[in-house]
Amino acid sequence: MNFDKELDARGLSCPLPILRTKKALTELAHGQVLRIVATDPGSVKDFAAFAKQTGNALLASNVHGKEFEFFMQRK
Fold it and tell me: Percentage of residues in the chain with pLDDT exceeding 70?
């Protein structure tokens, strides 16, 4: 999937991946896509909830071994 910016949240525990994502999304224009890579297993639920609360679209969520990859589109 194409993306405009990437955020490396590996090694960070809740709530840091979400907080860093929130900041990174503010730096994007509406409709742009942010790719996030995290290692916190709780991030799967966290990113789904974050998308619902903020209205930013969670386009995809993938698992690669112990890493979780998310694509979020800024509303």
Answer: 100
Global pTM reads 0.95
**Domain residue spans of the chain:** 5-73
Is 38 a known active-site residue?
Answer: no
Catalytic residue among 5, 12, 14, 15: 14
Give the tens place of pLDDT for each residue, 40-51: 999 999 999 999
Yes or no: is domain 5-73 CATH 3.30.110.40?
A: yes
Non-local (6+) Cβ contacts of 64 within 8 A are: none
| 51 and 21 Cβ atoms separated by less than 8 Å | no
